[in-house]
């Protein structure tokens, strides 16, 4: 933990597993980290540094967590993706430890790397993740159903970002594709 006004580290927080992903939940006052042991850990950054060391641990995935994303329309929810080929919606209001409220998957969806990330539409209604075969999967969060599979990559899709202007994806060969509705 850094004191930005003074420019030095005031605390180091260790955890039980290597961290692979992180997101900041601005409105919730938390940082959520994704780990190689399949857990998402929620750190309350409103506490003093010495007291932030006991995170809420949500056992989200059977393998590595590859990305963590804050939901744009709900400060208490986060999306994780995992090397177990699933996406999980975590709700921090589900008791003292938080809970997985949705598991999202599709036939043919395979994660190819431990750093592949998923993203969320600006309105929070859809989630996207790229597959090992170059496909881009778009799910509806309302029914957890696969809405569409987009084809435009010849290599595994590594990353995606969805903004007001549309969806962008990039594959392991460095090819970026811009998608419009």
Automatic annotation (TrEMBL):
The WD repeat ranges on this chain: 121-149
Lineage, top-rank taxon, reads Eukaryota
> Gene3D superfamilies recorded for this chain?
YVTN repeat-like/Quinoprotein amine dehydrogenase
Q: Which UniProt keywords apply?
A: WD repeat
Please verify whether the record's keywords include Transmembrane helix: no
Instruction: Write down the InterPro entries for this protein, in alphabetical order.
Output: ATG16 (IPR045160), WD40/YVTN_repeat-like_dom_sf (IPR015943), WD40_repeat_dom_sf (IPR036322), WD40_rpt (IPR001680)
Which GO biological-process labels does this protein carry?
Answer: autophagosome assembly
Q: Entry's PROSITE patterns?
A: WD_REPEATS_2
Keyword Mitochondrion (UniProt): no
- PANTHER family, A to Z: AUTOPHAGY PROTEIN 16-LIKE, AUTOPHAGY-RELATED 16, ISOFORM F
- Please state what the protein is called: Anaphase-promoting complex subunit 4 WD40 domain-containing protein
